[in-house]
Design the sequence.
């Protein structure tokens, strides 16, 4: 992979991370303090968001109500799924075929997972490599 391709890949992933933080802040009232986005193969993007719980959710975890936090977050995420999907589609220029959000309340980590429609760009692993070798080789 060329230096330009690597920089573009990192830039796109950073843009997704920033967008997920922004959406969490807008939709849930507080954004996570750390975010990292990676390709997980050719057609999957995973954004890991840390320190994402709201103060009330932290209190619920302290009370042993982890499951209630999971349930409420799952419901809120389902209500806003279209916004998250549209944002990733715009950044990547690829259609999202499935979206899921998961949370580990005790670890205070949220995972936003996007399964992308295979397309021309799915010939690469998401980093410009075809079958482990550079697409330009």
Sequence:
């Amino acid at each position: 992979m060329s230096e330009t391709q690597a920089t573009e890949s990192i830039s796109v992933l950073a843009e997704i991370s920033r967008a997920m933080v922004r959406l969490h802040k807008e939709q849930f009232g507080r954004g996570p303090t750390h975010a990292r986005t990676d390709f997980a193969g050719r057609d999957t993007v995973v954004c890991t968001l840390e320190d994402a719980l709201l103060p009330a959710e932290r209190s619920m975890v302290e009370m042993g109500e982890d499951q209630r936090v999971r349930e409420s977050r799952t419901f809120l995420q389902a209500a806003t799924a279209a916004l998250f999907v549209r944002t990733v589609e715009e950044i990547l220029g690829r259609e999202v075929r499935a979206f899921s959000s998961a949370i580990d309340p005790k670890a205070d980590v949220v995972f936003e997972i996007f399964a992308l429609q295979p397309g021309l760009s799915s010939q690469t692993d998401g980093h410009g490599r075809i079958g482990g070798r550079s697409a330009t080789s």
Observations:
- Residues 127-137 have pLDDT under 50 and may be disordered.
- Strands lie at 34-39, 44-50, 96-104, 109-116, 129-130, 133-134.
- The CA atoms of residues 1 and 136 lie 7 Å apart.
- The chain has one domain: 3-122.
